[in-house]
Amino acid sequence: MRTYTASAIVLRRIDLGEKDRILTIYAREQGKLSAVAKGARRPGSKLAGASEPFTYSRMFLSTGRDLDLLTQADIKESFPNVKQSMAGIAYAVYMMELTNSFVDERQPNPELFDTLLSAMYVLESGTDPEITARYYEMGLLAVLGYEPHFETCLRCGKKVGRKKVAFSPALGGIVCNECGVPPNDTIWVPGAIVSYLRALKNAEPQNLKDMKFPQGALRDLAAMLRWHIRYRLEHELKSVDFIDAVAQFDPNTP
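Request: output the structure for the sequence above.
Response:
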């Protein structure tokens, strides 16, 4: 049985029996994989903390026939501030599900791992959870080659002004309102959305905490990027409903 180490983030967990857990982890060196954490649900288990969702650890694992085995873990960051609010938890869960949905088993992508870990540290710093999520969406899409084209109209090549523009996931970008009938999958967003997308794309992680977006701009960004992501995945993410539910109970939730 081969043993190896991995710098990994827990994307999700499933309880197995009365004592164990099955983890889906995203490792910088190995990509996404599944592993059993035996005894992780026992009181005082050394694997209990490391098997919590979005915990970042240096893990020691052994290869198995169906599932690998987590034997030891050195927790690097548990992101306690994120867990202090339902909004923080909801958006962290969303980023984990987003990653899990886009990546395949055993396909390492160190750049995407670093982008996810950076976004979690941004969230831990107290940055607006919704801005953090939009920042991560843009980063993930860019790394995977799905970043929408928003600088100019895809049909005429002109820069957009402040008038509404048509965003089409099928085309992968925006079409200005002077370029005829837009595609059937179009949603309309203000042309000003381009400046906010550009700000997110160019932002340094440490500066995100000071960024302030109007609520209308945040709604437009969420609508546009969620629509683009749904097109790419061909399904809706369950955690979107969790975010919406949290927002209903907490008016301060983004």
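The first helix runs from residue 86 to 102.
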